Structures are given as structure tokens and as C-alpha cells.
Amino acid sequence: MTLAFSPIDLVRPPRIAFGSGTLSAVREWLAAKGLKRALVVADGFNAGRVELLGLEGAVEVFGEVKPEPDLPNLEALLAKAESFGPDVVIGFGGGSAMDLAKLAAVLPGSGQSLHDVVGPEKVAGKRAALIQVPTTAGTGSEAGTRALVTDPVTQNKLAVQSLHMLADLAVVDPDLTLTVPPAVTAATGVDAMAHCVEAFTSRKAHPTIDLYALEGARLVGRFLPRAIKDGSDREARAGLALASLYGGFCLGPVNTTAGHAVAYPLGTRHHIAHGAANALIFPHVLAFNAPAVPEKTAQVLAALGLPASSDPAVVLKATREWCAALGCEMRLSAYKVPADDLPIMATEAHAIRRLLDNNPRDMSREDILAIYQAAL
User: Fold this and answer.
1) 147-200 per-position pLDDT tens digit
2) DSSP-based three-state secondary structure for 102
């Protein structure tokens, strides 16, 4: 059986409104469905511009979403949801807000805790309708069925995956990203690219997803430098929003690989923003994997506008310089990550089998430690 005929499930929100000015679809959809009690899940900045959603009826705003949401952050949201009783939950922000919104749409009143639903398809059902409105171009969470929350005790990310957490409506209006500052634009853009590249080079890679993965990487290569240079470049913002959406399509049936696994301890242990962590790790993992997927590695470099190559040294140098040129910090030491923490980080990353087992080349704990040391 050829790869093109291997089984795969493709899941999308039943409606995706994409493009400048599509934010009005939120109000129209709610009116058509007769939903009148909205809980908006947002970070502090987006909580201050909820009026853009044009909501009517009873509206409650949870505006305390953290960049790397943890269990206490989720519990505060769930308490508000329990008391308010929404008929629709709206994720309004980056991936953290949208991930928490997914959980707020399924857990309150269900009798299930977060620990009950960690893993695949353990959620009992959807308790409220779900709308996702991304305001950054990075995670693609609006298109997916996964949510990640950090356990502050173990410092590990708890992953929940459920079809019940799929958005009923996703509204991707690139105009909402015009206010994103250059550093965040860079980090989130590289995160979107990493979703695409890791899916493209995964052991689970599939032609139905390769289409989105490679085009997503091309969009980032073309538009990310432009958006960083001029945040008001609406064409560039739209290109990145589309790349992020395509990255979200990649996450469902294929998911990420070693890049995200190695990046996670940077966030959980040292509070480095997810996109920034991915940017720092991405060149090292792409170079490590090059011998296993040489043709696809060369295609990735070409998609980013770099000379095509599958030589690990060339790949590492070219992609590190590409990320650095975007303004991304490429040294762990700049984030004050101590050298004596690297072995613990390597052990934690190596335990994330749900991602590492997808990697095209086996990566040992010692390999991960070597990557951290090279990035220090």
C-alpha cells in the first residue's frame, strides 16, 4: 500500500471565515443560532477590545489568560464558567486563550476534571458552543482539537485531544493581528512554520497534509520578514494568518515531532514563550533530522527562500541565521537557562513520546542534551 492510500482522518471546523473584515461573522452566527450568553476567554490585551466582537445579550469576560496557561489559570476560568453558565464560549486571543476556551466549552458541569480527560478522546461531550477567533498568527489552534495546560507541580504539559473541542465556527480575520509587535510576530510566525515543517518531515507525514505543510512554510518564508518590517502590511498579515491556519490543519492528523518536544521544557521550566522556544530549537532539530529526510529538508529550505540543502551543517547555519535575522533570540544563555539544568530538561523532553515517536530519526536523551548544549 502506498502512502497516499494509508488511512487518515481530516477534521475541520464546520465553518471557517477567513479574510479581512470577517469578524462580523461572529455576531451573525450567534444571532442565527439564537445564542445569548457568551463567555469570552482572552488575555489582558484582548479583554480590552472585546467590543470588536459585537456581542449582544449577556457577556462575561475572563481576561486573565497566561502566555503558558497552567492548572490554576484553567481552574479560575472553569469556576467563572460554572457560575455564569454560557451557551457559547469564545476564544479571543492566541493559542493559550483558544486552548483554554476549548476546555471551558467541555468541562464545566460535566463531572470531569482536567486529569480525567488528559489524552485522546476522553471528553464526555460539548457543554457549550465554541467559537475561536485568533489574534496572532502562530498556533493554528482555531482549527484543532487539542489543548495544552502546564501542571505546575510536574512542570509538564498536559495534552487533551477531543473532537468535542473542535470549534463550531473559526473566524480568522488578519486585521486583528495588525497590532502584534515585531518580536511576537517573529516568534508566532516561526511557531506556525514549525507546525508545518514538523508535520511535513514526520514519520506520520501524509500527502493530504503535505500540501498544507509545504505551502504554510512557503507563506512564512515569503511574508514573515515583511510583517516584521512593517506591521501594517495587510497582505503579509493575511499570508501569515493563512500559514497559521494551515499549520493548524497539520496538527490534527499528523502533529508535531521532536522540535516541539525539545522546546517544551524551555516554556514549562524557564517560562520562555512557546514561539520563541520553537524558533531557538527549530534549526537544531531540522539539521538533526536531515539525514533521515534529505529531500524534504531541501524543500523546507527552499520554501523559506534559502539555498536548498540537506547537509546538516549547512541546514543548521542557514536556518539559525534566518531566525536570527527575524530578531529571534538563538541562545539559551540569553534567557538565563543554567547549564546544570540541561540534563533535567533533556530527560523531560525525552519523555514526551507522543511527539518524539513521530520524529523521522530516533532521538536519544543524549541527542537532546547535545542540542541544548549547542544552543546554550
Assistant:
1) 999 999 988 889 999 999 999 999 999 999 999 999 999 999 999 999 999 999
2) helix
pLDDT for 1 equals: 43
Helix (H, G, I), strand (E, B) or coil at 56: coil
CA geometry: angle 43, 130, 252, nearest 5 deg: 90
C-beta of residue 98 within 8 angstroms of C-beta of residue 142 = yes
Residues 6+ apart with CB under 8 A from 2: none
CA distance 304 to 24: 34
* H/E segment holding residue 46: helix 44-47
Beta bridge partners of 149: 158
First to last CA, the chain: 44
Vertex 350 angle, CA 346 and 356, to 5°: 135
Calculate ∠ Cα 230-297-273, nearest 5°: 45
| Model confidence pTM above 0.90 | yes
Q: Are strands 16-18 and 169-172 parallel, antiparallel or unpaired?
A: parallel
- Cβ neighbours, 10 Å, residue 264: 25
Tell me how far apart the alpha carbons of residues 228 and 247 are, in angstroms, rounded to a whole number.
19
The C-alpha angle with vertex 200 and arms to 176 and 135, in degrees rounded to 5, equals: 10
Residue 238, sorted as left (phi over 0), alpha (psi -120 to 50) or beta, turns out to be: alpha
Question: What is the CB neighbour count within 10 angstroms for residue 74?
Answer: 22
Nearest to 97 by CA among 52, 50, 162, 36: 50
502533529: which residue's cell? 255
Strands (E), the chain: 16-18, 37-42, 58-62, 88-93, 119-120, 129-134, 146-151, 156-161, 169-172
CA distances from 99 to 76, 130, 147, 329 (A): 14, 11, 5, 26
